[in-house]
Each structure stands twice: as C-alpha cells, then as structure tokens.
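Researcher: Please translate sequence to structure tokens.
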Amino acid sequence: MPQSLPVPLARARAFVIDVCTPAGPPVPLCGRSRRRWVRKLPYVLAWLFTALLLPLTGNALAQEYGLGFGLALSLGVAQTVPLLVAVRRPLLAWAIAFAADLAAAVAVLSEPVKGDWPWPWPPMTVIGMLLLMLAVGMRERRPTIVAVWLATGVAGAVLRGLVPERSSSGVWITAFVVGGMLMLLAGALRERGDARRALAEQETISEAERARRTLLEERTRIARELHDVVAHHMSVITVQADSAPYRIEGLPEQAREEFGAIAATARESLTEMRRLLGVLRSEDASGGDGGGGPERAPQPGVARIPQLVEATVRSGLPVELAMPEPLPDTLPQTVDLSAYRIVQEALANVVRHAPGAKTRVSVSVDEAGTGLMVLVVNTAAADRDAPPVETGGTGHGLVGMRERVRLVGGTLDTGPLDGGGFRVAARLPLAAEPGTGFPTEALTATTGTEEDSRTA
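Model: Translation complete:
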C-alpha cells in the first residue's frame, strides 16, 4: 500500500492540481455571445497577431539576439502559434508560450550582446504574453489567474537577478503590471457575464415554474367548480335509486336489493367527492363560516351572462350583448359553466388592461346545432397611455380559458386585432366528445404563460 502524503504536502498538491486544471470545457472565447461577429472576433485576432508576431519574433531572435535561424524560427513558432490554441484552451496556450519565452531568454544568454534590445522579454514576446494573459483572465478562475500573474512576475524577477547587467527592468515590470491589469479587467468582465447568464437561467426556470404552478392552480380551481356539477348528478342517481321501489310496483326482491346497492354506492361516491374537494379547496375558497366547508351558492351558467354584462356596464365599460332567445334546453352543465367563466374572464381582462374599450359579447349556437359559440371582442383602450387598472384577478386569463375549453373538448382562438384590441372566440360542443378532460401527459407541455396584458 502506498503511503499517503503529509497533510501540508497533500494540500499543496491539491492546490497545484486545482490551479493547473482548466475551468470547464474548451468553449471558444466569446462563444456564448448572441452576436455572430463577436463569436468570430477571437479567431480573427488570433490569426492576425500570429501572422504579425511570428515573422517579427523569428527575425528578432536571429538578427538582433544572434540565435541560429532554425532555433530562432522554432522558438518563434512556440511563442506565437499558441495564440491560436488560446481561443479554446487559454491556460494550455499560456503554458506552452511561457515555456518558450523562458527557453528563448536562456538561449539568448549564450550569445554576445549585439544591440540595446531588451532582455529577458523582447517587445514581440511582451505583446504575445499580454494577449495570452488576457485570454487566461477571460476564462480561468481567480486562483489560476493569480498563479499565472505571479509566475510571470517571478520569472522576470529571477532572470533579472541572475543576469542584472543584461536585463531591462522596465520590460518585465511593464509585462507584470500591465498583464495584471488586463487579467483583472478580463476576470471582472467574465464574472459579470457569468452572473448575468446565471440570472437569466434562473429567470427562465422561475418562469417555467410559474407557468406550471399557474396551470395547476387553474385546473384545481376548475375541479372545485365542477364538483357541484358532478355532485348534482350523483345526488339524482341516489334519489332515483332510493325511490325506485316506491315508484315502480311489483319489483322483485332482487331488483330492490340492486337499487339499494346503487344508492349506497352513489352516496359513498358523493362522500368521497366531498373529501376530495376538501383537499383541493384553498383557504381563500372556504365557506363563509371560515371552516373550509363546501360552497352553498350554485354554479353560474349562460343564463347569468346578462347579469354579468350588466354589472360590467355599471362599472363603466361599454358592452354589447347578443344572445339567442330562448337558450338551449339541453345545455350540458360543464359547457354552461365554462361559457360563463370564459365571458367572465374575458370581461375582467378588458376591465383590467383596456379600461373604457368598447366590447361586444356574443353567445350563440352554431348552424349545425352541435356547439355553443362564445365570442368576446374589444377595441383598443380609450386611453392607450393609461396604466392598467389592476394586475390581479381570480383566474389566470388565457390559461384558464384554454383549460376550460380543453375540459369539454372544444376549441379556443385568441389573439390581438389589427389597430388594437383583442379577440376571444371559443366553441364548446353541446355533446360530450370522447377523450375530453384534463390530459394525462406531462404538464410541461405548456411551456410558457400567456400574459393577460396582451388584451390591451
């Protein structure tokens, strides 16, 4: 078994590994920008500076510092070509170029001084070094940035201390100070960009969660309202089953027991439905006694739409109503309730978001007599600069309308009108269609919340 390192050495080893590990996958610099030219800019700059610095560096090392042509060209390639690698892997590119810079500085010491060119870093080396430090600052974490900055400064200081008569103090100090400033600026900009992206991602997640919660709340509200409709049918079944032995003479005993079983099952189902309603009911939907009991008021329907329109007109909104007389006698209760709620929600949206807009409400049966047509159309607000009256409401606007229409197997068409205004058109089938009701697929099919403010 290999012996473990002492704690200080283990910590130092872990720190070195962490500093030398690149931050994240090799995504190109500026690769997350929405602008195409910004994404292409690092590649253009890398090729441009490589094409400029490569011949200048090789020529300077050969002509001004006295190195052989082959060695000078090799060191020039090692110092400048990493700029191309820096677009995706800045830390690796800096390490290669920095090693080449040190090798070139040491190699120059074997040649006599031919001029007054600075040492240990020639001007072209300083430019490449600063570019690579800028790239490192744009990608890596703070410990890595500090390590790169200190390595640059320490290397310059050590070389100057070894050969003080040949070194130019201004060169390595300039590279150290300017490089630190560039890395500090690049790191600050990178952290700001990361924070903005994280905030945008969080807002996207929050918006999806709000849409999901809105959908669930609206479906729960609809389920609470449908309790009265279903409870009425179950009550009728119970009464008919209980009274059958008294209404029908000569029933055999087996039939009497069957009717009794039906009545008992219906009463049990009604009790379970009331328990389910207690689970679905929120605190603000509790009865007047505050005990959370069932609501006693009957559910509204199409017959109460005129009262709804009259109340809206009294609030100051000009509304015209067109309804058939008489109303259909065979209107299903779910369709009856859904039609009323759609008109109610549409008028509430107009009052909140388009105060003073002329509105037309139409409820009719289609030509085939198979569907109830509900149409609510409003013009633009009387004062387009006026702020909305309120932003709250009991429902969730278009989401609630869509769920009610989906419940009965109908269709819904909503959208803004040319020149301002909004249109809500729903068709609710008068006969139940197979497959209607709340879907069982994942709720994430609804990817966003449609805002009621579009009504204005």
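Researcher: Any highlights?
Model: Confidence is low (pLDDT under 50) at residues 284-294, 387-395, 438-456.
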